[in-house]
Automatic annotation (TrEMBL):
Pfam families: Y1_Tnp. This is IS200/IS605 family transposase. GO terms for biological process: DNA transposition. One of its GO terms (molecular function) is transposase activity. SMART domains: Y1_Tnp. Residues 14-134 form the Transposase IS200-like domain. It comes from Streptomyces boncukensis.
Length: 138
């Protein structure tokens, strides 16, 4: 079984849940160098650990970041995203004075929006077919 498909267990459930998250900088300004992205990955790993989630993969370019996150059902993706964006924005502003010019008047590094997509498991068509083929009680 591939690493990304390992089943995790909670107290009352078993799960495999992954989300692909994409954060874009405010006004899509190109602000990140490789050193910024490396530090951002460290910050986001710490935030994920606080949420009992795992940052499986991280990468980005000068104006956006991609994350693959393995998370338990008790974690609301929107709360995780808010924390990831808020903490990374604050810490990057404190640690990298060269980024301050890109925060403009709002003191925000990230755009207010984000992309979140579910990832992994069987395609929806297969899951739908499986459910349809289950025996119905008489």
């Amino acid at each position: 079984m591939a690493e990304y498909q390992k089943i995790r267990a909670g107290r009352h459930c078993a799960f495999v849940m992954h989300a692909h998250l994409v954060f874009v900088t405010k006004f899509r300004h190109k602000v990140f160098a490789d050193r910024h992205l490396k530090r951002m990955e460290e910050i986001m790993r710490d935030v994920c650990a606080d949420f009992e989630t795992e940052l499986v993969e991280f990468n980005g370019e000068s104006n956006h970041a991609h994350l693959l996150v393995n998370f338990p059902p008790k974690v609301a993706v929107s709360k995780l995203v808010n924390s990831l964006k808020g903490v990374s924005s604050r810490r990057m502003r404190q640690e990298s004075p060269d980024l301050v010019q890109h925060y403009y008047r709002s003191n925000k590094l990230w755009s207010g929006s984000y992309f979140a997509g579910s990832v992994g498991g069987a395609p929806i068509s297969i899951v739908r077919q499986y459910i349809e083929q289950q025996n119905r009680p008489a």
